[in-house]
TrEMBL record:
Organism: Planosporangium mesophilum
UniProt protein name: YbaB/EbfC family DNA-binding protein
GO molecular function: DNA binding
Source organism, top-level taxon: Bacteria
A Pfam match: YbaB_DNA_bd
Length: 136
C-alpha cells in the first residue's frame, strides 16, 4: 500500500473541511425531525402507557382502570417510572448517532485519525523543509 502524496492528502483534508457544514446541517435537521416524532413506552403489559417526544418530553401518561383498582400506590409508581424510562430509551434511539459504535471502536477510529493527521503533518513539514531549501 502506497502512501498518498501530500497533494492527495491536502485534497482529502480540503474535502473534509468543505463537507463539514453540510454534515452539521444534516445532523441538525435529523435531530429536529427525531425530536418531532412520538414514541410510546409501556409497563405492566400495557397497564401504563407513556407517550414521549423524540426530544424526551413526556406528552401523555395513560393508566388503565384495572391498574388503578388493583395496584397499590408504590407498585403503580414503579410501573409509571418503568413506562417513562422505556419511552425515554425509545426516544433516545431516534436521535442521530444513537447507533454509534462502542467506546473501543470509537477509540480505534480516533487513533487511526490521529495517526493520519500525524502522517499529514510529517509530510507538510517535509514539504516546508524542501521549500525552505529552494529559497536559500
Amino acid at each position: 500500500m502506497t502512501m498518498p502524496s501530500p497533494d492527495e492528502r491536502m485534497e482529502q483534508l480540503q474535502r473534509a473541511v468543505e463537507d463539514y457544514p453540510y454534515r452539521v446541517r444534516r445532523l441538525t435537521e435529523d435531530a429536529a425531525e427525531a425530536a418531532a416524532q412520538k414514541v410510546t413506552g409501556e409497563a405492566g403489559n400495557g397497564q401504563v402507557v407513556v407517550t414521549v417526544t423524540g426530544g424526551g418530553a413526556i406528552d401523555s401518561v395513560r393508566v388503565t382502570y384495572g391498574a388503578l383498582r388493583e395496584l397499590d400506590n408504590r407498585t403503580l409508581a414503579d410501573r409509571v417510572m418503568a413506562a417513562v424510562n422505556d419511552g425515554l430509551e425509545r426516544a433516545e434511539a431516534l436521535m442521530p448517532g444513537a447507533g454509534e459504535p462502542d467506546d473501543a471502536a470509537a477509540e480505534e477510529a480516533l487513533h487511526r485519525f490521529e495517526q493520519r493527521m500525524d502522517d499529514l503533518l510529517y509530510e507538510l513539514d517535509y514539504i516546508d523543509r524542501k521549500l525552505n531549501r529552494i529559497d536559500e
